Amino acid sequence: MFYGFQTRDENAAIGALLVYGIYRSRDIKRFKVTPDMWGIIERAVKSSSKRAMDLTDFIEKLKGKLKCSTIAPKYMATNTEVVSMKIDPETGEMMQVHDDGKREFWVDILEDSDNKTILDRLYTKTSLIIALVRDRLERERSLRKEGIIEEDDDNED
Which residues contact 45 (CB under 8 A, 6 or more apart)? Predict the structure, then answer.
């Protein structure tokens, strides 16, 4: 599992993360849930990845097609929890400290990943990318119903 997507292909997971973040950040009044919504998204991903020079270009192209003005940081989370050690000044013991407040903006992913390979996955394996995104959305929906994760105000698919 990479970035919350159930796959062994990290490049596909990065592609799915980009699509997921843009989809979740879309303007739901301008890009509504319709019977062909996922077909539209799949065609948009294929078209954007075919013409993109790199991942940032892909993001800009896809944002326009999915009516996303800006990507919300809460959907950019890569689910990599930062854990560090700290000494308790009162007892001298070592303690684990979780950094839950750090917002992410995909900077490391965009700079460190192989843009060409990810764009290739987005273009040649578009159905897999969409399936990964939809799988994560379904798992999140179940967790929201059980109250394990917070309810979003977003429109469901």
Answer: 19, 62, 122, 126, 129, 130
Q: Could you say which DSSP state residue 89 is in?
A: T
Residue-wise pLDDT tens digits, 89-146 = 788 777 666 555 566 788 888 889 999 999 999 999 999 999 999 999 999 888 888 7
pTM above 0.70, yes or no: yes
Q: Report which secondary-structure segment, H or E, holds 111.
A: helix 107-112
Total domains in the chain come to: 1
Examine residue 81 and state whether it is found in any structural domain, yes or no. yes
Please report whether residue 106 resides in a domain.
Answer: yes
Structural domain boundaries, residue 118: 10-145
